[in-house]
Amino acid sequence: MATNIAKIACAVAFAAGVAAPVTAAAKSSTVTAIEERGTLLCSGHNGSYFGFVEVNDKNEWKGLDIDMCRALTTAILGDPDKAQIVPLSWAQRFPALQSGDVDVIIKATGWTMGRDTEVGLQFSLPYFFGGTQFMAHGDLGITEAKELDGGTICVEAGTTIERLAGNYLKTLGIEHTMVSYEKASELRAAYLANRCDAFAAWGPFLAVLRATELEKPDAHIILSDQLSNEPIAAAMRQGDEEFVDMVNWMIAALLIAEEEGVTSANVEEMASNPPNPKIARLLGVDPGMGERLGIRDTWAKEMIAATGNFGEIYDRNLGEGSPYKLERGLNNLWSHGGVLYAPILD
Amino acid sequence: MDAAALKLRRSRRDMLVQTLLVVFVVLVIWVAISTAHTNLTELNMTSGFGFLERATGWSYSFSLIDRSIDDSYSKTLLIGFLNTLFLGLICIVLSTILGFAIGTARDARQLGLNSLATVYIQIFRNLPLILQLVFWYAVLIHMPGPRQAFTMGEVAFLSNRGLMLPGFNVSPTVVLAMFAAVVLLAVVIFRQKSLQPVQKLLLWLVSGSGAMLLLAWIFAPADSSIFSIPAQQGLRFRGGIGVPIELVAMILAITLYGSAYIAEVVRGGLNEVPSGLTEAGKALGLSSRAIWFHVKVPMALRTIMPPLGNQWIFIMKATTLGVAIGFSDLFYIVSTSITQSGQTLELMGLLMLSFLLINYSLAQLVNFMNARLALKGH
C-alpha cells in the first residue's frame, strides 16, 4: 500500500513536471531576471583580446563578441547601452556563469563536448569559426598555401598546429621545411627576421599579431586556407531552454538580416515597406517574431538598427572596417562560400 | 685467532656489505618502477614502447636522411640521434683543431698573439653557452633572405635560411660510401712509412677526390650532371647541399665555446713540458715548428688527453641546446615527442640511454688513446 501511494505521488509529480512548461508562459527565467535588473551581464576580458573583446583606457569595450552582446541586450532590453561587461579571465568565465555573475558568455569560446556535458553548459548556434591559418611575408606575392612550395614554415613546437600544418601541406603535396620553436617569442622573432616564409597559428591570433604588433601590417598577408575549425558559440547555463532559444534567434536574426540585405542604414525603410514576407516577419511588421520568445515583436528591427546585421558587425570588428582586415572566409553566409546559416524563419 | 681466519672474516664482511648494497640499489629501482607503473595505471595512461611504431605527424628543421611526417616515432628518434651525433662530431673536430691553435698561441712568446688568444678565451669561456647560441642565431637570421643571398661565384650561397653548397648529385647512401672510401684511403696512405707527411697528405687529397668523383660518376642519374649546384628557384634554393641556419648557429656557438676550454687544456699541457726538453731541441738545431710537432705536442698530449676527453663529452651534451633555436637534435625530438605522444618516462629513458651510449663510447675511445699514448714502462 505504501509503495502504491509512493508510485501515485511519483506519477502526479511527473505529470505536473511535464505539464508545467506547457501551461506556463514560454518566457525564459533568465530573460525575466535581465528585464528586472535592467541590464544584461556579459563576459568581458581581463585586458584586451583584440578583435573580439577589446577595452581602451576609458573602459570602453568593443569587438565582435561585445557587439554580439550589445545585440542581445538590444533584443531583450531595447537599448545596447544596457549591456554591462564584466571583465573575466579565461579560467573565470565558466564559474562566473554558473554563479550568476554573468548571464551569458560570448567570448571566443569553442564548443567542446566536455564543456557541453561535464561543465554543464548549453551552447548556441556557432556564430564564428576560427581555425589554423598561415601568415606569410607580403613580398612573396602569394595568397594561398599552394604557392608556399619550397618554403619554410615556422610553428610552435608540441602544438596541434604543428601537426595540422604538416598534414595540410603534405596533403597539398607542398615541399617545405618546418622549423618549430619551443617559445612563442622566439617563433615571432624568427618569422620577423624572415627566417621563415610563413607562420602557422590560430587565424584570429595571426590577424591580431599582424595588425597590432607588426610594424608594417601590410607587409604580411594571411593566406586564405583554413586548416582546422573551432565552432565559436555563446555559452549559457544548463536548464533554461527558453534563453537558449532567445540567443539562437538573436544570432539567426543577425544572419537572416544579412542574407536579406537588411542593414542598420536601411532597416527603417525596409520596415515601413517590407520587400518580402520574410523581412516583414523578421522586422516585426507581421506579428509573431517576439511573441513566441516572450518579448517585443520589433526586437530584431531595434537590434539591427543598433548594431547592424552580422556582416556589419564582422566588418566593423574584424574585417575591412577594422585594423585587422580579416577576410570572412568560412565566417561568411553559406550563400557566399561560408558556413554560417540561420534556421528557417517561419 | 690466526691470520687466515682474520682474512676470511674480513672477506666475508666485505661480501656482506657488497651484497646489501646491490640488494638496496635493486630494491630502490624496483620500487621506483612499480610506483610509476601503479600511478600511470591509476591515471589511465598507457605505458610501454608501443607508441614507437606510430606515425608522428609532425616535422622538424634538420635531418641527414629523408624524412616525412608519416615516419614512426622510432625513425624520428633515430634521426634525432644521428643529428646529435653529427653535430657533436663536427663540433668536437672543429673545436679541437681551433683549441690547439689558440692554446698554442696562448703559449707563444709573442705578446700580441698571446694577448689576442687570452681575450678570445676569456670572452668565449666566460659567457653562458645558451646566451652565445641565442646571440649567434639572432645575428645569423638577420642576414639577407634567400633572394638577396651572399654568393660565392654563383655556386655557393649564404642567406638567413642557411648555407647552400655545391655537392654531388647522389643519394645520402652514396655520400656515406664516399666518406668510407676517403677514410679507408687515409688509413692506408698514412700507414706508409716510406712517404713524407706532405707527400702523404697530397696523395690522400688527390686519391680521395678521385674516389669521390668516380663514385659520383657511377651513381649520378644518367641524364644529369654529377655535380648539383644550388640555384634560386621560387622560395628557396634547389640542388646542392643545404646547411640550415640552425645547424650553422649550433656549430658556431659550440665550437667557439668548446675551443676556448680546449685551448686552456692545451696551454696547460704545453706548460707541463719540461723546459729542458725544448732547450735540448733548440740545442740540436731544430726549428720551432719541429720542436712543436716532435717535442712539445707528443709530450703534452699525455697531460692533455684526459681533460680533452672530458671536453669532448661536454660538447656532445651541449648539443641539447638545439631546442632553444629550433635545431632538431635528439633532445629536441624527445621533448616534442613527449608533448605529442605523452610517453614521458619511456622517452626520457631512451634519451638517457642514448647519451649514455654516446658518451660512454667517447670515454672508452679516450681511454684507448690514453693507453696508446702512455710511456712504455711508466
List the helices and strands and how they pair.
The complex is a heterodimer of chains A (346) and B (378).
Chain A: H1 2-23, H2 29-37, E1 40-43, E2 54-55, E3 61-62, H3 64-77, E4 83-86, H4 93-98, H5 113-117, E5 121-130, E6 132-137, E7 152-156, H6 160-172, E8 177-181, H7 184-192, E9 198-202, H8 203-213, E10 220-222, E11 230-237, H9 241-259, H10 267-272, H11 277-282, H12 299-307, H13 310-317
Parallel strand pairs in A: 1-4, 7-8, 7-9
Antiparallel strand pairs in A: 2-3, 5-11, 6-9, 6-10
Chain B: H1 3-42, H2 73-107, H3 111-126, H4 129-141, E1 150-152, E2 156-159, E3 162-165, E4 167-168, H5 172-190, H6 197-219, E5 227-228, E6 231-233, E7 236-238, E8 241-244, H7 245-272, H8 275-283, H9 288-318, H10 330-341, H11 344-373
Antiparallel strand pairs in B: 1-2, 2-3, 3-8, 4-5, 6-7
Account of the protein in words:
The complex is a heterodimer of chains A (346) and B (378). Chain A has 346 residues and is α/β, with parallel strands linked by helices. Chain A is 40% helix and 16% strand. In chain A, the strands form 4 sheets. A 5-stranded mixed sheet of chain A has the order 8-7-9-6-10. Chain A has a two-stranded parallel sheet with strand order 1-4. In chain A, strands 2-3 form a two-stranded antiparallel sheet. Among the domains of chain B are: 3-45; 73-147 and 158-163 and 245-373, MetI-like fold (Orthogonal Bundle), CATH 1.10.3720. Helices cover 68% and strands 7% of the residues of chain B. Chain B has 11 helices and 8 strands. A 4-stranded antiparallel sheet of chain B has the order 1-2-3-8. The A-B interface holds A 140, 148-152, 154, 157-159, 162-163, 166-167, 170, 176-182, 186, 189-190, 193-195, 197 and B 57-61, 68-70, 138, 141-142, 145, 160-161, 233-236, 238, 244-246, 323-326, 332, 335-336, 338-340.
Q: Round the mean pLDDT of chain B to the nearest integer and report it.
A: 87
CATH topology descriptor of the largest domain in chain A: D-Maltodextrin-Binding Protein, domain 2
What is the global morphology of chain B?
globular
Shape of chain A: globular
Oligomer: heterodimer
Gyration radius from CA atoms of chain B, angstroms: 26 Å
The number of domains of chain A is 2
CATH topology of the domain at 73-147 and 158-163 and 245-373 in chain B: MetI-like fold
- Helix and strand run of chain A: HHEEEHEHHEEEHEHEHEEHHHHH
Structural class of chain B: alpha+beta
Strand content of chain A: 15-25%
User: Could you describe the largest sheet of chain A, including whether it forms a barrel?
Assistant: 5 strands, mixed
Number of strands of chain A: 11
CATH homologous superfamily of the domain at 73-147 and 158-163 and 245-373 in chain B? MetI-like
Helix content of chain B: 55-70%
